[in-house]
Specification:
The complex is a heterodimer.
Chain A: E1 3-4, E2 8-13, H1 17-28, E3 33-37, H2 44-47, H3 56-61, E4 74-77, E5 85-86, H4 102-105, H5 115-118, H6 120-128, H7 146-160, E6 168-169, E7 172-173, H8 197-208, E8 214-215, E9 225-226, E10 232-233, H9 259-264, E11 269-273, E12 275-282, E13 289-296, E14 302-312, H10 316-326, E15 343-346, E16 349-356, E17 372-375, H11 386-389, E18 395-400, H12 421-430, E19 434-441, E20 450-458, E21 464-469, H13 474-493, E22 498-500, E23 520-522, E24 546-548, H14 563-581
Parallel strand pairs in A: 1-14, 2-3, 2-14, 3-11, 4-21, 14-24
Antiparallel strand pairs in A: 4-5, 6-7, 8-17, 9-10, 12-13, 13-14, 15-23, 16-19, 16-22, 17-18, 18-19, 20-21
Chain B: H1 3-22, H2 27-33, H3 35-38, H4 72-76, H5 83-91, H6 93-96, H7 110-123
Classes of the chains: A alpha/beta, B mainly alpha.
Chain lengths: ~600, ~120
């Protein structure tokens, strides 16, 4: 029998960036807020100080900050004719499992997604015709505009200490920034990070090839910084241990050292760690949620937390899973194309070339999470004619170093034996003399890429696991082939001693090795309850006192890291709740 | 009673020495530079962050506070913090105390270090 807790105004499920932002904003607005986090508390002081934090085995190989697949995992298949099997070890993506969530172990790349994403169907239909979009490509407009989000992007960038160079301030194109970005009201709070050699060499080559390189905006403070909330950042030390690690210098914008401690100082806020939410409860009408049930993962004790509002702010996959487990909204069925919960799951695609330069020294042990010089000529650049290539979306290309660690980072030229004396000689020779050029490509929604509840496998709480059905389609293969060609052309122009060229990926997607933690979709935002789960304020169409914030609200996945719009949308939703919903609780958009 | 003149004399020497070396320091600029330290170090007594509280640092022995876990290297260093020793440490922490745990690469400009130390001296005077 679950212990029933005292009712609160808001229960927050998952305390990472989005939960942290909403916890801070709503407790400051006077609401009683309880956050339930499945992981434990971590702090820079106790957990991420030098030298203990620089432990590749613990954090990278053994996934210390990530979800535990022995409690819950997802089952995976490539298409509906297969039987899905559980992912028993983490691989392709790494959801966080601590206070601060994946915001602790991210690299900090912070992009502004533009109307090219938010109006994807309208723009492509207008320019390339309705037939340019394949029938099974279920992309749709997001129901929000860049103009609406701009102030919230700004707020997130200034909160998270993003270092970068503006390319477009109020329509004025500025040298050195991304000329294809949408207009911003002002520059980044901090100047770009100091570039590493690989970035400088890529920049020169990109310019020679007619591209427009710029330093990738990243929440790694290039200087000491105090954000508008008073959170203090040290300067990035280029320690080479960014992605997968907490930051030892308080230089990486993370919720555990910004918004969450501010919420913690507010007596309206309470955090309960090691609590796993199993269900969102509805009233008898089915039009309101009444709270959540949860289990203490340390001792199995069960609780019910009644609340006037429920905010799903866990990892994107878990937010969708909870909607399915709780029977909120109609589950998606790809056969009849009915229902929305689970629809439009998307991922990303990538490829990379390794360039070896005898006599050059790249010092791969020294870099920031954002040590990346990037070109956006093949995505935000709307003048790039997709008609010739025949795909929707695009890719970015970067010369970058990010967390090249002693165990995992072992570049050797193609043809080197994978073990033994020859491999040892090659790794010693080439470790310091290699750099990479990589790409990240968009994945457009497809009718047959989706989530539902697994009919066979159950997790440690006895609940059906999430089932993911996903594979790359022809659109991604076309993007991959084009991107590989662009990478290899740039790479060859740099005259490396040896080159492992980029190869477009065309084999079926698998869950190994690590690829990207950018899983999107499943509870789309949109303009119509028939085709989306949430309205533009990320409020459930079915239950008006339920909101969900995360990459699960994206109707498709772009080339960029998702945290920029995820953070902006958290502030956007916080404002909608504070300024509109609290005054008049009910649907913020009439269906 | 006996100790008082000694303390006063020592303090006078201290101020004289400090005044000689850092008379040109700009504490306003030093306060701005202290932002680099502030993400980890508090000026208040007893507030331990990623780094130890700097309250009353001058005259203290390195690694002395009970409520902060110092690196063995710093504890063994035998340093007593004065404007001079702190200046050398901030210039290049790993050179001054090899294997210490402070994740800070150093403040290369002598002028900046003088300003920073002048600011800290003002805070704790």
């Amino acid at each position: 029998m679950a212990t029933k807790m005292k009712e609160v105004d808001v229960v927050i499920v998952g305390l990472g960036w989005t939960g942290g932002i909403l916890a801070k904003e709503l407790s400051a607005a006077g609401l009683k807020v309880v956050a339930l986090e499945r992981g434990g508390q971590r702090s820079t002081e106790a957990d991420f100080s030098v030298p203990a934090v620089r432990d590749e085995l613990r954090y990278v190989v053994r996934h210390d900050l990530m979800m535990n697949t022995q409690k819950d995992t997802i089952t995976i298949r490539n298409n509906v004719s297969q039987e899905a099997l559980p992912m028993r070890r983490l691989g392709s993506f790494l959801p966080g499992d601590v206070v601060g969530g994946s915001g602790v172990h991210w690299s900090g790349h912070t992009w502004r997604w533009t109307d090219m994403e938010f109006k994807v169907r309208s723009l492509y239909e207008e320019r390339y015709g309705k037939k340019s979009i394949p029938e099974d490509m279920t992309i749709q407009d997001w129901g929000i505009s860049y103009g609406e989000l701009e102030p919230y992007y700004d707020k997130f960038e200034y909160t998270a200490a993003v270092s970068g160079k503006a390319g477009n301030i109020r329509g004025k194109i500025l040298p050195g920034g991304n000329p294809f970005e949408a207009p911003r009201a002002r520059d980044y709070p901090l100047p770009p990070l100091t570039p590493v050699l690989a970035q400088e060499m890529f920049k020169a080559a990109a310019l020679n090839n007619g591209y427009h390189p710029f330093p990738r905006p990243s929440a790694n403070a290039s200087r000491a910084y105090t954000n508008p909330d008073g959170s203090r950042f040290g300067a990035c030390q280029y320690c080479g241990h960014c992605q997968r690690f907490g930051c030892e210098a308080n230089a990486k914008g993370s919720p555990h050292m910004t918004v969450i401690p501010i919420a913690m100082r507010n007596p309206n806020f309470e955090l309960r760690t090691h609590m796993w939410v199993t269900k969102v409860l509805k009233d008898s009408s089915g039009k309101r949620v009444t709270g959540v049930t949860y289990t203490n993962v340390l001792n199995g004790e069960e609780f019910e937390q009644p609340a006037a509002m429920v905010l799903l702010t866990a990892y994107a996959i878990n937010n969708v899973h909870l909607m399915l487990l709780s029977g909120i909204g109609q589950p998606y069925d790809p056969a009849g194309q009915k229902g929305v919960i689970g629809k439009n799951y998307c991922y990303q695609t990538g490829a990379s070339a390794t360039l070896f330069f005898e006599g050059r020294h790249f010092n791969p042990f020294m870099n920031a999470g954002g040590s990346s010089t990037t070109i956006d000529d093949y995505n935000a650049n709307w003048d790039f004619d997709r008609g010739k290539q025949g795909y929707v979306g695009g890719f970015i290309v970067a010369g970058a170093f990010n967390t090249a660690l002693p165990i995992g980072y072992r570049p050797v030229p193609g043809g080197t034996p994978p073990w033994g004396t020859a491999w040892k000689a090659a790794t010693a020779k080439w470790y310091d003399t290699a750099m990479q050029i990589n790409m990240s490509g968009s994945v457009m929604a497809n009718r047959y890429n989706y989530y539902d509840l697994d009919p066979t496998y159950r997790n440690a709480f006895g609940l059906p696991m999430m089932r993911m059905t996903f594979d790359y389609k022809e659109n991604e293969h076309k993007i991959g082939r084009h991107a590989a060609q662009v990478i290899n052309d740039i790479a060859k122009s740099m005259n490396p001693t040896r080159l492992n060229p980029a190869v477009a990926r065309t084999e079926p997607w698998t869950v190994v090795p690590y690829q990207s933690t950018h899983n999107t979709g499943g509870t789309m935002m949109g303009t119509n309850p028939k085709t989306s789960a949430l309205n533009k304020y990320l409020q459930s169409w079915d239950c008006h006192n339920l909101f969900s914030v995360g990459a699960n609200v994206f109707p498709h996945n772009s080339v960029y890291n998702p945290t920029g719009p995820v953070g902006a949308l958290a502030y956007w939703t916080a404002d909608a709740i504070k300024n509109r919903y609290l005054k008049n609780p009910g649907p913020l958009v009439s269906a | 009673m006996r100790t008082r003149p000694w303390t006063a004399a020592a303090a006078a020497t201290f101020i004289l020495a400090a005044g000689f070396a850092y008379a040109q320091g700009d504490p306003k600029h030093g306060q701005k530079l202290f932002e680099e330290c502030h993400a980890c170090h508090a000026l208040e007594r007893g507030v331990q962050g990623v780094g130890p509280s700097l309250h009353g640092v001058f005259g203290r022995r390195a690694g002395e506070l009970d409520d902060f876990r110092y690196s063995p290297a710093l504890k063994r260093s035998g340093i007593t913090w004065t404007p001079k020793t702190l200046e050398a440490y901030i210039a290049d922490p790993q050179k001054a105390v090899p294997a210490n745990r402070m994740p800070y690469a150093g403040m290369p400009e002598a002028r900046d270090r003088a300003d920073l130390i002048m600011y800290m001296q003002q805070v704790f005077k």
